[in-house]
User: What shape does this take?
Amino acid sequence: MKSMTTLQQLGFSNEQLERIDNLVPGRIATQSKGIYRVVTENHVILATLPGKFMHDLTDPLALPAVGDFVLMTLQPGENKGLIEHVLPRKQAFIRQAAGTETKPQIISANIDYAFLAMSCNDNFNVNRMQRFLIAARDSGAEPIILLTKADLIDELEKEIMTAELSGIAGDVPVYFISMHTDDHIAELRALLKDNKSATILGSSGIGKSTLINKLMGEDVMVTNDIRESDSKGKHTTTHRELLLLPDGGIMIDTPGMREFQLWSTGDHIGLSTEFSDIESLIESCRFNDCGHTNEPGCAVQQALSDGTLSAARYEQYEKYQRELAYQERRSNQAMRRAEQDMWKKNTKIGRQNRANKGR
Assistant: This one.
């Protein structure tokens, strides 16, 4: 990790700098098992959390994440510290954590751009990209679509892929990236100047690490190719990591994602943006509580009937609605259970402490 010379180059805003006081500011570069690597002006600090963060364990979103701006106290004579404060996030890219447990996972925090990557082979999947787009728009980051390994296809195939994406991406930029040329690399670097931050998301083995090496201008990431036998990739990146570009700007690399489940932030901005046409129709229905089945004056059913809205698109919209509603119910139940468990644990500790004092 290369040290930067100013806090502004780490992405700190003037408003954040006013809150520093006598604490040491930095930005989280990696996180693993409660240990954080934090980049400061002059050093990389290994930091942990003090006990006051224990009450946040029931809310994963309250804990520090890669990309967060933090304030620390340092241990004298050592490059170690305690994270005392996490400065307010301007945004966070969140997904439902992999596995069966219902909980959010912050992929990256305080980013300006979300580079959504797929490769131009069997990895290309419009539905997966639509999930990425919904999550990116929900986070507030500006999405950029990167189609890697473009040397594997011809110009006609590129036109077909672009047409398929146009139905879900709208005016989101689409760049075809070849691993053997530097096409569009200068354009991506230009986006990240002026201390902007980006994260890159996609499946394993699609060329994310190769792309980062191109942006960095040197080989800083180990690369692996997609297996020719099944077009699936091997994991190269095993953790999220913040990287400082030599010419300015910040990249947050992420491990390959075999699955991507949406996480509801409550307002469904991403879904509303992605399906703004359908939500406009819903607002035009005669009745506010229209179920969009056989009610009179239903604009949705009229659009389905006259072909201005495809049945497949409406079914996809309903699918996401059901998924988010189910996830919200599970999340609320999980939060209540976690709070109850924490209350029981604290009560037990309190009883033990009182018993010990009475001896």
